[in-house]
Amino acid sequence: MSILILGLIVFLGAHSTRIVADGWRSVQLKRLGEGRYKGIYSLISLAGFGLIVWGFGLARQQPVVLWTPPIAMRHVAALLTMIAFVLLAAAYVPRNSIKARLHHPMVLAVKTWAFAHLLANGGLAALLLFGSFLAWAVVCYSAEKKRDRAALTQYPAGSAGATAIAVAVGIAAWALFAFWLHGVLIGVRPFG
Questions:
Q1: Which of 152, 156, 170, 172 has the fewest CB neighbours in a 10 Å radius?
Q2: Domain segments of the chain: what residues?
Q3: How far apart are CA 171 and CA 164, in angstroms?
Q4: Interatomic CA distance for residues 186 and 192, integer angstroms
Q5: pLDDT band, residue 188 (cuts 50/70/90)
Q6: Lowest pLDDT segment from 13-17, 154-158, 179-183, 187-191
Q7: How far apart are CA 17 and CA 12, in angstroms?
Q8: Where are the alpha helices (DSSP H) in the chain?
Q9: Helix (H, G, I), strand (E, B), or coil: what is residue 40?
Q10: Is residue 59 very low, low, confident or very high in pLDDT (cuts 50, 70, 90)?
């Protein structure tokens, strides 16, 4: 479990720099340059992610069950993860109404994904992993909204076509992941 916790600290710590030390981050960007800063940030993030994957895999070998979720939570989780994939797609499709309305769909996707997995999993490792990501996403979303208000950020209106593309891409990516890649990469097949 300690490797999982270390991975979460490294990964979420790197992703929290803008939340807790935005001034320091700005100084480092100027000092190192954008390319070097992003390179170091990426290496730290990849190391944290690798530790998370390794630590979660180890923790799953000796599970500590805290509760047994009702079977119905699997269906709720499937629906919520589909929504998370649509939100994730909306973060990248330009000028869609989802991003225009919600402003930070990537962080909302993390929130939704983490919450869905908390509903469907009752183990200690899952609670640590998904609970940490959910807590981080709540704090991150609040910080991003605060920055938007301070900067008077305006988001461009979305179009129906771009929104339809975001929804279609999100659902297609969700289906690919839920029906095939989740089993291949994670070792758990959500739909049997």
A1: 152
A2: 1-62, 64-192
A3: 11
A4: 13
A5: confident
A6: 187-191
A7: 9
A8: 2-14, 17-20, 22-32, 34-61, 72-90, 97-102, 105-120, 124-151, 160-176
A9: helix
A10: very high
Of residues 56, 49, 61, the one with CA closest to residue 1: 56
Residue whose tokens read 């270390």: 6
pTM listed for this prediction: 0.91
Sole residue written with tokens 């047994």: 68
* DSSP string for residues in 132-181: HHHHHHHHHHHHHHHHHHHHT--PPPPBHHHHHHHHHHHHHHHHHIIIII
- Indicate the residue type of 172: A
pLDDT confidence of residue 136:
98
- Tell me if 182 sits within 8 A of 117, measured CB to CB: no
